[in-house]
Amino acid sequence: MSLWRLIAGLFLGVCLVIAVWASGLVLPPESLARRVAAFSAVYPGPVGEAEVDRIDCPPMPRVRFYLVCTADCTQVRRLMAVRGLAATLLANLNRTPPEDLKVTRGRINAVIAGERLRLDRDGAREMIGCYMRIEGLDPARVLSEGGLQDVNEARSAGAAAVRRLADSLEDTDTLARIEIEDAPDGFRAGFLYWETARAGDPVLRISLEMSGDGVLRAMRATQVVAPKEPPAGESGTPEPGEPPAP
Fold first, then answer.
1. 71 shares a domain with 42
2. Domain total of the chain
3. DSSP string across 78-120
4. Residue 101 CB-half CA count within 13 A
5. Are residues 128 and 237 in the same domain?
6. N or C: the chain end with fewer CB closer than 10 Å?
């Protein structure tokens, strides 16, 4: 009799742990969250071959964002959000034709709105960094206003100077370069971004509007420095998830 009570107690304990993880009240282990993301993104394909990369988003501690790929991202390439043990597809980046940007941003905003954040300016700045990483942008490439001149001077000096400048940008808190302004029911922000991942390395001015709970209302990118001529055979077509050049 005592053995059955022990088994029943263990079973109820396991069920309780799973229920708490599933609710999102307590975060499941990172390894388990990665498996959930991989299964949801790849199944019925080869789940064991999935590569799962975490996307940092400090303002949302209960939601984990992942980029899930197979075959070096040539086959499956999907953005996933995991809260508790539930996974949500945010974007299928290898879909042909590509998904509408409004649709993918709508999914991301729905996940963020569900967290009911209350951001101050610092939190809004961190949330912008989160959006950038989700969209495939590197916060280390945010420039100060004076950084525009630095890019032009480095280009004039040659490829080695450009590489040195790009490496030096990672040594500081680049998100601190983003200027945040209060707006009705939220924030406005604008900053320069050096798009070194795109052919020609253009510099973009990105402006956005965000509500107080972190939902992105608008994001626009305009080119302020003409890109270099790409080498023969390269195209200037942006990767899915990147802000379009004007």
1. yes
2. 2
3. EEEEEETTEEEEEEETT-SSPPPHHHHHHHHHHHHHTT-----
4. 13
5. yes
6. N
* pLDDT tens over the chain, length 246 residues: 576 666 655 656 555 555 555 555 667 899 999 999 999 999 999 999 999 999 999 999 999 999 999 999 999 999 999 998 899 999 999 999 999 989 999 999 999 999 999 999 999 999 999 999 998 899 989 988 888 888 888 888 888 888 888 888 765 678 888 989 999 889 999 999 998 877 778 899 999 999 999 999 999 999 886 555 555 554 444 444 444 444
Asked whether 5 and 12 are in contact (CB, 8 A), the reply is no
Separation of CA 30 from chain center: 18
Place of tokens 């490439």: 141
| Contact of 235 with 199, CB cutoff 8 Å | yes
Q: Are residues 216 and 150 in the same domain?
A: yes
The pTM of this model reads 0.79
* 140/78 same-domain check: no
Domain that holds residue 56: 23-116
